[in-house]
Design a protein that fits this description.
CATH architecture: 3-Layer(aba) Sandwich
Strand content: 15-25%
Bound molecules: S-adenosylmethionine
CATH topology: Rossmann fold
CATH superfamily: Vaccinia Virus protein VP39
Structural class: alpha/beta
Largest sheet: 7 strands, mixed
Number of strands: 7
Order of helices and strands: HHEHEHEEHEHHEHHE
Number of domains: 1
Helix content: 40-55%
CATH class: Alpha Beta
Length: 261
């Protein structure tokens, strides 16, 4: 089954495609320190709820200030959905929405006020690589937002086997923050998702898949879709729910050092 079709179906009812509630996303947006005309990069933007909410909040004001955002995602389904939503919800924002691999986006160094990569750190070979890539694209004194899993406890080897995960693939919550410090960033916020947010994120996928199967019984992908959902449900209920954590991490890049002369 096509990977992006699978994620399109299983995330159809998600507003945010990660285990963060909409309320927490809004709280985070309210705590961002952005200028009047922010320039924002979101790598692996998905259906773009973060970009859309930013564009709605910082959209063109009476003085003509404009939000300028770049959203990059490899899924043709997500980018098409985002383009439609952007035309409806933020027609005045300058949004560049690109269907491409995130690692291939040629970000101009130090050019964005906020750079984001939420839930796709494999694009830059992991959490530390993601922090470095985003840092380099962010202006001095700007902000870097990542969403990253962490181990809440040692993962059962059977869980790793079943889910195709590696112990070294994720760090601890403290390690995720420390990686930012190691990259020269100042930690500003770490918003950890709770069980309710995780349950909503995981179980909405069960519902979307079941509804798709009921309305598209002749789609030859349905058996594989349901088998993958069943395996994911088993992994989540048996191990993942107690083992894997998730947080949004916000950092600031160092401000430009002003010379005294
Ligand atoms: C967990 S979702 C997160 C989406 C979005 N950031 C959010 O939080 O709602 C991961 C996203 O990464 C995208 N993705 C996966 N591999 C990618 C790649 N190599 N380049 C760009 N996007 C990618 C997927 O299409 C998906 O939209």
């Amino acid at each position: 089954m096509d990977t992006w079709k699978f994620y399109d179906i299983t995330h159809r009812d998600h507003i945010v495609c990660n285990p963060t509630s909409v309320a927490k996303l809004d709280e985070l947006i309210g705590l961002l320190d952005l200028p009047a005309e922010p320039r924002v990069l979101d790598i692996a933007c998905g259906k773009g709820e973060l970009l859309l909410r930013l564009a709605e909040r910082w959209g063109r004001g009476p003085g003509g200030a404009a939000f300028r955002g770049v959203g990059v995602d490899v899924s043709p389904y997500h980018i098409a959905e985002l383009r439609g939503a952007a035309a409806r919800r933020a027609p005045d924002a300058e949004l560049e929405l690109l269907e491409m691999g995130g690692a291939d986006y040629p970000a101009t160094p130090a050019s964005f006020d906020l750079t984001c990569c939420v839930g796709a750190s494999w694009i830059f070979d992991g959490h530390a690589g993601t922090l470095r890539a985003l840092r380099d694209a962010t202006r001095p004194g700007g902000e870097v937002l990542v969403g990253e899993p962490f181990w809440q406890r040692q993962p059962d080897p059977a869980y790793l086997d079943s889910a195709g995960l590696r112990r070294a693939g994720f760090g601890s919550h403290a390690g995720n923050v420390a990686a930012g410090v190691e990259a020269g960033l100042t930690p500003l916020l770490a918003l950890v998702s709770n069980g309710d947010e995780w349950d909503r994120y995981e179980t909405l996928q069960w519902r979307s898949a079941a509804r798709y199967a009921a309305t598209n019984p002749d789609d030859p992908d349905v058996p594989e879709l349901l088998a993958r959902i069943e395996r994911g449900r088993h992994e989540y209920l048996t191990w993942g729910r107690e083992t894997l954590g998730w947080a949004l991490y916000l950092f600031r890049t160092p401000a430009a050092v002003l010379s005294e002369s």
